[in-house]
C-alpha cells in the first residue's frame, strides 16, 4: 500500500514534487483495511485530487457560462482515467501471446511483459495490451452468484444484483446535462467493474474506482468506508438475539422446571453467547498484520480530537442555569436550612476538582503528566488569548 501511495498515486507529503500520479496531483487520501470472510485483506480508500471541486461547486460550474468547455475537459479526464470494458486486442491477426497466457491460467502471478525487451519496441506494447485484456477478464468481469441476491427474497423474479452490475447497463459515452449539471459516465460493459488500466497492470488484482460527482455519492462513500472501520465480524445484538431465542425455547420446553439441569442449560447458553461476543475469529492475514505492526489504515493527514463534553461540564459549572442551581442547592445546602451561596467556585477548583490526572509517555518513553484540554485552554496564556477553542485544538500541539 505504501508503494501504491508513493509510486502510483505519486503523493508527496512535503509537496516538493508537482508531477502527481495516475489520478493527477493527489492532495489527500484516507484508506482503511478490511478482511473478507475468507481472510484476505483489501483497502477502501478515498482520494482528493488537487483542483477537484466539491459536488455543489462542480454542478454550478457545469451550468455556468463556460460549462460546455469545462464539461468536455472533465469528460476527457474521466474517460482517460476510468475504463469500463475489456480492451480490444493489439493485433487481431496475432493471438499467440493470448493463447499462451490463457494456457497458463495465471494472469495474476506472471509479470505480464518480458522485461528484457526494449520499452520502445512494438512487442512491449503488444504484450501490455494482451496482458491487460487478460487481467480485465480475470479480475474485473463480474459473474452473478447467490451473494448478489442475499438481501432479496428468494424466488423474486425482479431481484437485481446488489452490486448494480448488469449486461444491459450500457451507456455509449459520458454526457453532461447542461440544465441540471448532472454527469452520466459511460459504461461500455455492464458486467465490468470500473478500473484504471495503469493501477490494474501494476497491482494485478481486482479493483473498483468511482468518481464522486454528487453529494449523494459522497455521503454513500463516506458511510461505506466508516461502516467498514467500525464493524465487527459478529454484531453484539446478534449474539444476544441468539441467546434470547435459546433461553425462550428452553423455557417453553420446561416452563416450571427449576432443576439443577435446567439452570445449567440456561447458563450454558449464556456462556456461549458471551464467548461469541468476546472471542472474535481472525484470519491468519489479520494476525500477521498486527504482529508485524502494519497499518490497518492509511492517511495523509492527522486529526485532532475535541473532547467537547468536558468543556460543556466546565461551562455548566461556571454559568449554571437557575433550574440547575436550584436543584443542586436544594439537595445540598438549602435542604439543610443553610444560606444558598451563589458564588461560583474558583477557576482552579473548577478545573482541578473534576478532571482526572492522566499520565502518558513522550517520544523517548518517559512517563509525563498530561493535563486535560479544558486546563490547556483555560491556562493558554496571553499570547493565545484571542484564539478560539476550535482553532486552539486544531492548530496547537503540546
UniProtKB/TrEMBL annotation:
Origin: domain of life: Eukaryota
Coiled coil: none
Domain Helitron helicase-like: 9-47
InterPro entries: Helitron_helicase-like
Biased composition (Acidic residues): 338-351
Disordered: region residues: 321-351
Protein name: Helitron helicase-like domain-containing protein
Amino acid at each position: 500500500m505504501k508503494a501504491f501511495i508513493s509510486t502510483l498515486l505519486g503523493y508527496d507529503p512535503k509537496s516538493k514534487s508537482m508531477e502527481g500520479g495516475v489520478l493527477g496531483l493527489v492532495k489527500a487520501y484516507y484508506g482503511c483495511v478490511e478482511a473478507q470472510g475468507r481472510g484476505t485483506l483489501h483497502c477502501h480508500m478515498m482520494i482528493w485530487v488537487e483542483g477537484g471541486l466539491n459536488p455543489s461547486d462542480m454542478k454550478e460550474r457545469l451550468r455556468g457560462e463556460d460549462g460546455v468547455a469545462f464539461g468536455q475537459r472533465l469528460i476527457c479526464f474521466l474517460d482517460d482515467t476510468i475504463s469500463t470494458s475489456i480492451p480490444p486486442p493489439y493485433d487481431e491477426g496475432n493471438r499467440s501471446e493470448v493463447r499462451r497466457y490463457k494456457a497458463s491460467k495465471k494472469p495474476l502471478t506472471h509479470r505480464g511483459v518480458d522485461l528484457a525487451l526494449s520499452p520502445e519496441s512494438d512487442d512491449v506494447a503488444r504484450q501490455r495490451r494482451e496482458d491487460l485484456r487478460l487481467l480485465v477478464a480475470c479480475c474485473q468481469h463480474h459473474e452473478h452468484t447467490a451473494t448478489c441476491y442475499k438481501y432479496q427474497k428468494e424466488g423474486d423474479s425482479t431481484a437485481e444484483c446488489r452490486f448494480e452490475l448488469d449486461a444491459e447497463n450500457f451507456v455509449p459515452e459520458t454526457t453532461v446535462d447542461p440544465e441540471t449539471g448532472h454527469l452520466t459516465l459511460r459504461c461500455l460493459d455492464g458486467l465490468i467493474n470500473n478500473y484504471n488500466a495503469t493501477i490494474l497492470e501494476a497491482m494485478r488484482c481486482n479493483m473498483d474506482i468511482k468518481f464522486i460527482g454528487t453529494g449523494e455519492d459522497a455521503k454513500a462513500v463516506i458511510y461505506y468506508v466508516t461502516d467498514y472501520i467500525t464493524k465487527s465480524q459478529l454484531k453484539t445484538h446478534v449474539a444476544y438475539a441468539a441467546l434470547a431465542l435459546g433461553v425462550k425455547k428452553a423455557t417453553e420446553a420446561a416452563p416450571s422446571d427449576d432443576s439443577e439441569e435446567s439452570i445449567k442449560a440456561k447458563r450454558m447458553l449464556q456462556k456461549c453467547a458471551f464467548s461469541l461476543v468476546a472471542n472474535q475469529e481472525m484470519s491468519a492475514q489479520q494476525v500477521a498484520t498486527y504482529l508485524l505492526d502494519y497499518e490497518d489504515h492509511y492517511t495523509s493527514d492527522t486529526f485532532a480530537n475535541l473532547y467537547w463534553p468536558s468543556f460543556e461540564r466546565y461551562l455548566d459549572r461556571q454559568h449554571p442555569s437557575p433550574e440547575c442551581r436550584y436543584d443542586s442547592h436544594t439537595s445540598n445546602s438549602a435542604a439543610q436550612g443553610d444560606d444558598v451561596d451563589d458564588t461560583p467556585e474558583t477557576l482552579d477548583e473548577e478545573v482541578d476538582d473534576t478532571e482526572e490526572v492522566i499520565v502518558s509517555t513522550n517520544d523517548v518513553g518517559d512517563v509525563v503528566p498530561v493535563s486535560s484540554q479544558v486546563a490547556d485552554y483555560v491556562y493558554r496564556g496571553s499570547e493565545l488569548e484571542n484564539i478560539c477553542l476550535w482553532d486552539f485544538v486544531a492548530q496547537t500541539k503540546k
